[in-house]
Structures are given as structure tokens and as C-alpha cells.
Automatic annotation (TrEMBL):
Xref: Pfam families: AAA_13 (PF13166)
Domain Protein CR006 P-loop: 11-720
Gene3D superfamilies cross-referenced by the UniProt entry: P-loop containing nucleotide triphosphate hydrolases
Native source organism of the sequence: Nitrincola iocasae
InterPro entries: CR006_AAA, P-loop_NTPase
Protein name (Swiss-Prot/TrEMBL): AAA family ATPase
Length: 742
């Protein structure tokens, strides 16, 4: 189902329509609006959904229609639209081209024998064509098998020659397509062919080598860090025995933490004097302890230093690169030996510092060769790069050799086996097979179309006739079958040569209802939009139209009925909604209102679709709604041009209804104005304003009158005042209905 029209721009008077807060569409949707309010234009949007080809008539339009499943249909995306059927004035014009004919898509019963004979003749042609197609197809398949056999045998030979086990008939065909324009240019001499085969078959296989990672250890930085530590000093009241024995010193340092408040040795149980504890604590000052820790940390880092460089295997290099690599490898070995010597010197200095924390020590270790390792690794990686490039070049040469051999073999096969002539012959036979197949498809299409016509012919005529009899019971119109796939409409026993517009509307509506379930289509899968179905029909036909809509179309997936006729609107409103709920929207039924308004910015008419106003929804007459519009305009402090422009038509509708009830014996409404106005001048003014101004054909005439808005408002005020004075009870009642103070 369609849930809403999110946007409709540049579509006739729907210039900038937005759905806004409107209630979503449901299964049954009733749309009311006066003439020219936008109902037919809205139905034409549904025509675009029915037939996307109609979009060409709406250049520059933009719309966004949302479906129940969340899909959006727009002017640029009309794929997979739901099944939509629209009845409007366009449908009447396109489906009733002549007065006495219905659309020629239906076949009458008199042509059944003729159509069956046509199918018999088509069956005979189909059998002959099928036999011819089989013979030609057999020939085609034989030629294909012969060519495939030659190609498969040759492809195997090429696979053996190149050593490519994946080479097959398909790859041979690809090569043939590449060389077939100039095959002779790909033929190799015997010597050239053998040279390329030898290169391709060479077994020496060089692989690429990974780059050597740079060394993360920086000896010079390590030396500088050690120098800083060696130059630091720390003083204390050293105990000679502890100073000379660092292990004992470490043991005492750990033990002090357990004897802060103890007078007895936890190890041996002997007494510890306060003087002895104080002496030990002075040995371990904070600066002394911090430097001790820093030296120990630096020593651990030095002792853990290892020079590990992962080098490729010399055997992996190409011959001309082995010697340079061996030389660089020996330089790395030499450098590592030197670096380990430096580390040993660093270790000695650090350990010496542990014994002389109170003294500064100079770090005179030579690290001048520290940066050599970086260049050596760069040189090795340069050799690796050269090796890898040579590997790639060899592979490229092998690939090029294989490609040349395959093209040579394809060209030889193409020339030696006359492949060009074989392909021409195959194409000729295939064209004949295709021609026969196309003929069979055309025959099948004709048969299907005739079968559809036969299926439709009698049923369609009967259904249309039944509906026409229901709609026009007093017109004596009936449907008669004639040759040529047409219907003839008769009035009694004579041809109905001069059908009225109302009769045309009724007949076309009957045809529309019949087509909804044509060709096996289901109403339960169909969205139906009916626009003013009683156009050109008098009030006697309203109940028949109402009955057809509520009974015949109730199974529809979704239905939209748009009308300007208040009687039909009221009938459908009574049927689809509940009076006790003030005709409010239901889960399966909603009502809407189309109106036209004037854009004050550009003075152009705009149409919009909105939820039905309460007065139209609650009451069975538009009389109250018109009174509300007039009262609102008369009391407005800033009346708009749009309100003034529509006021004459509203005033005429109101006066026709009110005066018609008051004095039904007189038909012309203007002759009843004496019920409201005693003065003939006032009666003439009101009649002239209501008649002439309500027929303004455009805005220009209104805009040319500077006082048009104020004159319109004053005229409406005059009528409402007259109603209040002459019929205060009715005036008060109407004010109560619309919710204003009399």
C-alpha cells in the first residue's frame, strides 16, 4: 500500500507540497475538494505510478511516494511499482475514442472460430519451423564439436611445450581472439622459438632476499650515559669492612630494614646497641643509596647488551654478488668483535665505580667505529636490492618468452586449420538457427495474444453490459458484439450514435471496473484511484456509483476516492466512518481535503492535500464549513488576497443553500435576496459581487482593483449582518456550530 506522499513539487498546482503532519493513507481514503482544488492532478500522480511512461509529460517534477514496506518511489526511481489503476477524465478520453465503441482490446464471440483457425495455422508453421531449427542446430553442434576437438588437442601440445599445466582450450581461444587480425606477425622462426623454449625451461630458480634490519644499539649513546653516571659522587661515613666487601654491604643494607625498632639481631639473637645502629645507618646515606642503584642499573644494561644481526645465506645470492657479500659479512664480524671489546671496557668501568662511589671516574673508551655498522648494513641491503631486481628481470623475460610461444602456437593453429573459414561457416549456421528461434518466439507470441483475446471476449462483454444496466437503468443502453474486436452500444434496438457525456462516463466507468480483474489480475493486489466518478452524471446516479464503490471495490488492496460532490462524499463517509465517533479517522479509513490557495509571494495558485477540517468531517453538509470560512474572512484583521479571491464563490454557494431552503418555490437564488435585504440596491450589489467576482478567470482583474480585498470583506460582512438581523435564530445556531460567539 501507499502510506504517504512525502513530497510533490512542480506537478501542476502542487508546486511545493510536503506531507507534514497529515495522517498516513490507509486501505480506504476519501478525498473531498471543490473543482480545481487539485484532485485530478493528484490522480495523475497515481497515473505515473501506474505507467511510468507518463512521467515524460511532467518535466521537472519531483515526488517521493512512500510505500508500506518502506520503499520510496521517486521521479528517478519507478522500479517495481505496485499495481495501480486510475479512473479520471484522462481515462475517459483515452478509452472512449468513438461514441459507439469501447476499447478494442476485447474480442466478441463472433470471432472465436476465426481466431481458432489462426491458431491452427500457426501450429502448422510452428511444427515446420521446429523441424528446420533442429536440423540446423544439429549441423551447428557438429561444427562446434570438430573445432573444439582440434583446439583441445593443440592446447595440450602447448601445455607440454611451455610446462603450464593450466593451459587449455579456453586460453587458446583467448589468444586466437588477440592474434586473429594479423596472425602472420606472431609467427616465430625455428631458432627464435627454440631459444625462447630453452629460456622458459631453465631450472635455475633465484628467489628474492629480505632486507637486513638495522642495529638498534647505539654505542656512542651508551658511552655518554655511562660517562654521566661515572662522574657522579656520593659521600657517607663509610665502614671500611663494608666498603671492601660489597656482598656484605648488600646483606647489611637489606637487614637494616628489619631492625628499625629492634634491639636484638633477628639473625643471631645478639643485642644491637643504638650506637651500632646509628653507625650502620650513617654508612647508608640516601645519595649513596641512589647512586649505588643507578650504577647497578647501568651495569645491568651494559652486561645485557648483545650485537645480533641476522644476515641472509651467502648461497642465496647470485654468483656475481657472493664475493661482495662475503666481504661485508666479514666486516660485520670484525665490527662485532670490536664492539664486544668496548662493552667489556664499559663493564669494567661500571664495576670500578661501584667500589668508588665517592670519586669521579673518566670514561675514556674509544667508540669512533660505532657508526660503521650502519653503513655496512646499508651496503648489504644495496646488494639485496640488486639481487631482487635481477630476479624480477629473469621472471619477466620468462613471462615474455611464454607469451610469445603461446601467441606463435595460436597463430600457427589459426592458419594451419583454416579457423577463419570454419568460424564463418559456424556463424552462418548459427544465424539460421537464431532466425528459426526468433520465428518460433513470434509465433508463440501471436498464439498467446490470440488466446488472451479468446479468453476475454464473451466474459468482458457480459460484465460491461451488466454494469452499464446497473448504472443506466432508465437509458435502455446495452452492449452488442460486432466484428473486428469492438463493442457496439445500442439504445433499444438502434445504434446509440449520440451518447451523452454522462452516458460516456458511465460506460467507461463500467469498462474500468471490468478491466480491474482482467487477465487474471487480483483486486486484492490492486491500488485503485477514482476521481469524480459522477462527473457529468446527475444525482440519480450517485447511489449506483456509491454501491459499486463499496461493494465491487471493497476487496481492493487500497482505494482512493476523490470527489467534489457532497452527496457522494457524505454517503461514503457514512459507510466508512462512524457517526458516534464524529466520523474520525479509523485504522482502515481516512478522509482528506484538497484545497487551492494563493501564494502571496508570487501570486500563483498552489494545491495542497491535508486532513479534513472538523466541520467537513463532523457534518453531512458543507454548509457549515462555508459559513465558517465566510465568518473567518469577515472578522479577519488582515484578510489575504486568497481569502478575498475565493469569497465570491463561497458567498454564492452559501446564499444558494440558505435561500433555497427558505424559498424553494423560486429557482433563481438572486430573486430570493429580498429575504435578507429590503433595499434593491443592496440586493443588486450582492448579486453582482457573487456572480461576477466568482467567475474571475485570473488574478489580473482582481489585482487591477486596489480595493478588491476590502470590498470583498465588506460585502461578506453585509450578508452576515443581514442574516443576523433577519434570521437571528439561524445565525446564532450557525455560530454555535462553528464555535464562535454570535
Amino acid at each position: 500500500m501507499i502510506t504517504k506522499i512525502n513530497r510533490l513539487n512542480n506537478f501542476a498546482n502542487y508546486r511545493q507540497f510536503q506531507w507534514g503532519a497529515n495522517t498516513n493513507f490507509t486501505k480506504r481514503n476519501l478525498i473531498y475538494g471543490w473543482n480545481y482544488s487539485g484532485k485530478t492532478t493528484l490522480s495523475r500522480l497515481f497515473q505515473v505510478l501506474e505507467d511510468p511512461g507518463e512521467l515524460s509529460q511532467w518535466q521537472g517534477c519531483q515526488f517521493d511516494v512512500e510505500l508500506q514496506d518502506g520503499r520510496r518511489l521517486t521521479q528517478s526511481n519507478l522500479a517495481n511499482t505496485p499495481r495501480v489503476k486510475v479512473f479520471n477524465r484522462d481515462f475517459i478520453q483515452s478509452n472512449f475514442q468513438q461514441e459507439h465503441k469501447a476499447p478494442a482490446v476485447f474480442i466478441v464471440g463472433g470471432n472465436t472460430i476465426h481466431l481458432r483457425n489462426r491458431i491452427t495455422r500457426l501450429n502448422e508453421s510452428e511444427a515446420k519451423t521446429t523441424t528446420i531449427k533442429k536440423k540446423r542446430n544439429d549441423t551447428y553442434q557438429q561444427l562446434i564439436r570438430e573445432l573444439d576437438s582440434l583446439g583441445t588437442t593443440h592446447a595440450r601440445a602447448v601445455a607440454t611445450l611451455t610446462g603450464d599445466k593450466t593451459y587449455n582450450r579456453t586460453k587458446l581461444n583467448v589468444e586466437i581472439n588477440r592474434i586473429k587480425a594479423t596472425p602472420h606477425t606472431f609467427i616465430l622462426t625455428e631458432d627464435c622459438l627454440q631459444a625462447k623454449v630453452s629460456l622458459l625451461r631453465s631450472t635455475q630458480d633465484w628467489k628474492s632476499i629480505n632486507q637486513v634490519a638495522s642495529l638498534a644499539i647505539n654505542l656512542e649513546a651508551l658511552r655518554q650515559e655511562l660517562s654521566v653516571v661515572l662522574e657522579k659522587t656520593a659521600t657517607n661515613e663509610a665502614i671500611a669492612k663494608l666498603k671492601e666487601n660489597r656482598e656484605l654491604e648488600s646483606w647489611i643494607r637489606a637487614g637494616l630494614t628489619h631492625h628499625t625498632d629492634s634491639a636484638e639481631c633477628e639473625f643471631c639473637g645478639s643485642a644491637i646497641t643504638d650506637e651500632r645502629l646509628s653507625t650502620l645507618q650513617r654508612h647508608f646515606s640516601k645519595a649513596y643509596e641512589d647512586l649505588t642503584s643507578e650504577v647497578a642499573s647501568q651495569l645491568a644494561r651494559i652486561e645485557n647488551t648483545e650485537f645480533i644481526i641476522t644476515l641472509p645465506d651467502e648461497r642465496d645470492f647470485m654468483p656475481d654478488l657472493k664475493a661482495p657479500f662475503a666481504l661485508l659479512k666479514s666486516r660485520i664480524t670484525d665490527w662485532i668483535t670490536w664492539a664486544n671489546t668496548v662493552i667489556a671496557e664499559f663493564t669494567t668501568l661500571a664495576k670500578h665505580k661501584q667500589l668508588s662511589l665517592e670519586s669521579q671516574i673518566s670514561c675514556a673508551v674509544d667508540t669512533g667505529r660505532a657508526s660503521e655498522i650502519t653503513q655496512i648494513i646499508l651496503d648489504i641491503n644495496s646488494l639485496v636490492k640488486t639481487h631482487n631486481q635481477k630476479c624480477m628481470q629473469i621472471e619477466k623475460e620468462k613471462v615474455a618468452a611464454k607469451d610469445a610461444i603461446e601467441k606463435h602456437q595460436a597463430a600457427s593453429f589459426y592458419q594451419n586449420n583454416n579457423i577463419s573459414d570454419r568460424e564463418v561457416e559456424i556463424q552462418k549456421v548459427n544465424d539460421k538457427v537464431t532466425k528459426a528461434q526468433n520465428l518460433l518466439m513470434r509465433i508463440a507470441g501471436k498464439k498467446a495474444a490470440i488466446e488472451v483475446q479468446i479468453q476475454q471476449q464473451s466474459i468482458a462483454a457480459q460484465k460491461i453490459d451488466e454494469t452499464v444496466q446497473f448504472l443506466l437503468p432508465d437509458n435502455n443502453i446495452s452492449v452488442a458484439e460486432v466484428q473486428g474486436g469492438s463493442f457496439e452500444f445500442r439504445r433499444g434496438s438502434s445504434l446509440a450514435n449520440n451518447l451523452s457525456e454522462g452516458e460516456k462516463t458511465a460506460i467507461t466507468f463500467a469498462y474500468f471496473l471490468t478491466t480491474l480483474e482482467n487477465n487474471g489480475s487480483s483486486l486484492s493486489q490492486t491500488i485503485v484511484f477514482i476521481d469524480d466518478p459522477i462527473s457529468s452524471l446527475d444525482s440519480n446516479h450517485i447511489y449506483a456509483i456509491y454501491a459499486l464503490i463499496t461493494k465491487r471495490l471493497d476487496p481492493c488492496l487500497q482505494i482512493f476516492v476523490a470527489t467534489h460532490n457532497n452527496e457522494l462524499y457524505t454517503l461514503l463517509k457514512d459507510h466508512w466512518f462512524e457517526a458516534r465517533q464524529q466520523f474520525s479517522n479509523r485504522d482502515n479509513a481516512c478522509t482528506y481535503y484538497t484545497r487551492r490557495f494563493l501564494d502571496s509571494a508570487n501570486h500563483k495558485w498552489n494545491s495542497t492535500l491535508e486532513d479534513t477540517p472538523d466541520l467537513l468531517r463532523k457534518y453531512k453538509s458543507e454548509y457549515q464549513f462555508i459559513f465558517e470560512q465566510l465568518h473567518k474572512f469577515s472578522s479577519s484583521q488582515a484578510p489575504s488576497l486568497h481569502e478575498a479571491y475565493t469569497a465570491p464563490n463561497l458567498l454564492r454557494k452559501f446564499l444558494e443553500a440558505y435561500l433555497g431552503f427558505k424559498k424553494p418555490c423560486i429557482s433563481q437564488w438572486s430573486r430570493k435576496l429580498d429575504l435578507l435585504f429590503d433595499s434593491d440596491i443592496n440586493r443588486t450589489e450582492i448579486q453582482k459581487f457573487s456572480d461576477d467576482a466568482s467567475h474571475l478567470q485570473g488574478l489580473n482583474r482582481a489585482l487591477q482593483q486596489p480595493d478588491f480585498i476590502s470590498n470583498a470583506q465588506n460585502t461578506v460582512k453585509k450578508v452576515l449582518k443581514a442574516l443576523k438581523d433577519k434570521d437571528p435564530q439561524h445565525y446564532t445556531s450557525m455560530c454555535t456550530v462553528i464555535g464562535v460567539t454570535p
